[in-house]
Amino acid sequence: MIQSYLLLLSRFFGVIALAITSWPALAQPEPLPVEEVAPGAFVFEAPIALADSSNRGAIANVGFVIGRDAVAVIDTGGSLAAGQRLLAAVRARTKLPIRYVINTHFHPDHVLGNAAFEVTGAVFVGHHNLPQALSAREEQYLRSNRELVGESFEGTKIVVPTVLVDGTLDLDLGDRVLRLEAWPTSHTNTDLTVLDRASGTWFLGDLLFVSHVPALDGKLTGWIATLHTLEERQVGRVVPGHGPAAAAWPDAAVPIERYLGRLGSDVRTLIRGGHSLREAAEQAARSEANSWLLFDEFNARNATAAYHELEWE
Fold it and tell me: What pLDDT is recorded for position 27?
């Protein structure tokens, strides 16, 4: 009887020990698949999709740059889980400390993974308007994205930057300088670009969309003007906020400029013709529908924003 009991107890604790031994490996998040677009510069090319439980909010391009002494992460994804997968991708490539986490703007698919990097001791960096923009949207972002992403959204929270950029800022990773540049209101009022000088790789965030229809949350006229300024720069490659991980510049700007130009032209024509906001939302830029993914999900919203901006020109 005692021997049977001890045997049963031994088997029980053996199962527990096996579970404990196996748990860390099972608990490790799967690293995001990243592409080395230039030596030491890595990008996760996100699917062109809306956030849901299957993608855990990992629907924006995110990346990192490795210097001699440290790493900088550029955008973090749309949930804690997405951020943890990015962190795992960094750790699969290097054990150097993550010194900076840089956010290119306030949209949730780019910033809600920040919480995954708090444990690294990294400094969070963003546009000088970013803290206020995130604070104003915190409740809405957390509620709506929790509904979209589901259980894997657990633990996600807003983490605001403490180093703010108004103009330009250089960050040195050790023989590798990143030039950060804050832009006037364009795609949003928090747009920030990151140029890796060593490789000529320019992370443009959502100032550049490729294949994914642009999403206007700032000023149409400002965005077009910013694109014109960006096009004057010569770089090796650009990384858009959505679309292929690296693209030639300035050729990659041609489709988005065409779309934004058509949107503005159509909205102005509709306004002059006395058409309503609803009609503008239904009609503006419809000729671009076959050129973009997720067109119906975003175009009416873009037309509405453009109408409000342009009706008092």
Answer: 61
Long-range contacts of 285-293 (CB under 8 A, 24+ apart): 285/259, 287/262, 288/213, 288/258, 288/259, 288/262, 288/263, 291/255, 291/259, 292/211, 292/212, 292/213, 292/214, 292/259, 293/48, 293/211, 293/212, 293/213
Give yes or no for a contact between 73 and 120, defined as CB atoms under 8 angstroms apart. Answer: no
Distance CA 119, CA 121 (A): 6
Residue 195 pairs in a beta bridge with 179, 202
Amino acid 28: pLDDT: 81
- The region of weakest confidence among 21-25, 31-35, 194-198 is 21-25
Among candidate residues 283, 294, 108, the one with its CA nearest the CA of residue 213: 294
CB neighbours of residue 199 within 10 Å: 17
* Residue % of the chain over a pLDDT of 70: 91
Tokens linked to 105:
């703007």
CA dist 198 and 249 (Å) reads: 17
SS (H, E, C) 48-88: CCCCCCCCCCCCCCEEEEECCCCEEEECCCCCHHHHHHHHH
* pLDDT at position 222: 98
What is the pTM assigned to this prediction? 0.91
| Cβ neighbourhood burial of 283 (10 Å; 0-12, 13-18, 19+) | middle
- Helical ranges in 121-184 per DSSP H: 130-149
Is 20 a residue whose pLDDT tops 70? no
